Amino acid sequence: MPPPKLDLDWKEYGPFSFPVFYGQKAYNAWAGDTIQLTAAVVGTAVVFSFLARLGLSIWSYIKPSKLQVYCHSETGSWALVTGASDGIGRAFVDELLDRGFNVMLHGRNREKLERITKALAEQFPRRTIDFVVADASSLDHPEDAVVEKVQQLPGKLTVLVNNVGGVPTKPQYVSLHKITADSIDTQININARFPTQLIRALLPTLQENQPSIILTCGSAGGISGAPYIATYTATKAYVHNLTQSLKAEMVVEGFAPDKKYTKGVEVQGYIIGNTRSAQNTTEMPYFTASARECAKGCLARIGSGKALEYPTWKVAMQIGLMVTLPEAVTRKAVAKEMIARKTQAEKEE
Ligand SMILES: NC(=O)c1ccc[n+]([C@@H]2O[C@H](COP(=O)([O-])OP(=O)(O)OC[C@H]3O[C@@H](n4cnc5c(N)ncnc54)[C@H](OP(=O)(O)O)[C@@H]3O)[C@@H](O)[C@H]2O)c1
User: Fold this and answer.
1) Kindly report the CA angle at 135 between 130 and 138, in degrees rounded to 5?
2) Alpha-carbon gap, residue 69 to 262, rounded angstroms
3) Predicted confidence (pLDDT) per residue in 21-55, tens digit
4) Which end of the chain is more exposed for a tag (fewer CB within 10 A), N or C?
5) Domains in the chain, please, with CATH?
6) Which of 88, 109, 115, 243 to mutate to test the pocket of ligand 1 (most atoms within 8 A of CB)?
7) How many whole angstroms from 247 Cα to the centroid of ligand 1?
8) 167 CA distance to ligand 1 centroid (A)?
9) Could you confirm whether 286 is annotated as catalytic?
10) How far apart are CA 330 and CA 140, in angstroms?
């Protein structure tokens, strides 16, 4: 039933007669049958579309991962994980070995990589594990060493995890006018230049070995921006866009995965939230994940079809809140967190 119409004598309202006249007119128009019916139809469509999107989001956290389709080579399927000697990268290695892949670890510290490879070989005797040393911050095409090693693999590279990244420079939290020029270059190289060059160099191999998949590691900071780590957050926004563009490029170039993921080069990026790792020991109550939870969550999302995913529903909620709240509120909350981190880091340094 439509709401009742108003029948006020607007002339009685003295100085408010004009607002009452137009207010009543607008209200009565809104209360009319046509507008009520239109509002009901539009409202129902909005509610259904919201419920459908919510349902699809929940489904993406329940439906089985497509990771196993990339374990298809009879000569051995290989995953390459960059920045694999610690934190989330190290967790990706464990998860991938657990799921039947042979793994090549990339890092910068030969002794550390040797030690980890030896321990993993004992833990996973049926897998083949190798490593490659290349300084991702170097401008001297470190990706070449990785590609050379991939070409010698006894099997096929089908999974590339572009994990290396972060803020490897000291001080970790610093305003842009105080950071050194070299630190900026290092951060851009490790987070943006190296993954881009590595993907470029390995794409022909991944296309030949299809179905294959390229994963990238973005960050919540790449969505919101954050003071004292401006270079880092900007490189992560770059990673998000690189991922979306590359996924679109695979489609137009004829490398889109088919429905069952039996062919094509899939591209999926992760917007990673606060995760315990070698470079991040800060705790955000409720929202902090372990490196293993993060890697497990990323691999569980494979096959969602979306260019950018969240490792866990907690990160999805956090980002959802971030983009829904007024920008000034989000900026204030992020600033408070970053000031606390900077203060803590200065005490420890
Ligand atoms: N942790 C978080 O809260 C968080 C949040 C958002 C996004 N992420 C992203 O997740 C990814 C992993 O971060 P993480 O926190 O796990 O980092 P992490 O614990 O510091 O591990 C970084 C890994 O990269 C290696 N590495 C660092 N610099 C390198 C270089 N120049 N050349 C080659 N390897 C290098 C490290 O080697 P060593 O073992 O020799 O140090 C280590 O294996 C990054 O892309 C980061 O931006 C993390």
Assistant:
1) 150
2) 7
3) 999 999 998 888 888 899 999 999 999 999 998 88
4) N
5) 10-60 (no CATH), 68-348 (3.40.50.720)
6) 88
7) 24
8) 8
9) no
10) 39
